[in-house]
Description:
Blueprint: E1 5-9, H1 16-28, E2 37-41, H2 47-54, E3 59-63, H3 80-85, E4 90-93, H4 96-101, H5 106-119, E5 122-127, H6 131-135, H7 139-154, E6 163-166, H8 180-195, H9 199-204, E7 206-209, H10 215-222, E8 229-232, H11 239-249
Parallel strand pairs: 1-2, 1-8, 2-3, 3-4, 4-5, 5-6, 6-7
Helix pairs in contact: 1-2, 1-11, 5-7, 7-8, 10-11
Amino acid sequence: MRRPFVAGNWKMNGSAASNKALLDGIKAGLAGVASTEVAVCPPFVYLRDVAGQIQGTHVALGAQNLSEQSAGAYTGEISAAMLLDMGCCYVIVGHSERRALYAESDAVVAGKFAAARKAGLIPILCVGELLEEREAGTTEQVIARQLDAVLALEGIGAFAQAVIAYEPVWAIGTGKTASPEQAQAVHAFIRNKLAAQDATIAHQLRILYGGSVKASNADELFGMADIDGGLIGGAALLAEDFLAICRASA
Ligand code: PEP
């Protein structure tokens, strides 16, 4: 049985004061979502504050990115060990904004996935196709290519300690959500692809959906057989919306 998982990606939003207010709101409603694993991924600079504020709750801490390097002359970068030091359990890897805006290739993403695992963090590996790719009928090829880069470097065993987030790029922050059937089809493709290498690992792996998930569409999406929760952007910035999405996953 896969435990539902909902993670909030706060992106480059918030302040010390607004983060505290958001977390106070989330903590006030947590009792209603005890069966769901919940994580928040604030910007790097707030990780320590947030770690303190979620102490004693079942909210886990995640980061939004990391360096594929372990230490040294990489100005502005943050290593996996530093994230662990701040209390992170999770780190998002290969978010489409990183791939598109910061030119992260499949190889770089795979390197980040490996660096996270090596340090003991659980990577949340984002995969997803562009609108043109969906329209050209190449969604599965794109997802397969993104997964193969990680499989080639790390092997199927690495997915025993990882989470995948299927995030169609055309649905992120656009208000357009994949239909439950569209999302389920890709989730099933991912699980079957990994099951061809190790059925147990594939069966236990949590595959989240991300892309304009809201309180109003979460129920339907999370009702699909291979959707185990969500990676939430915009709706993770409002405690009531985030909690409603968590409740829908249970
Ligand atoms: C995301 O950025 O991972 C995301 C899913 O964003 P949104 O929910 O705002 O589409």
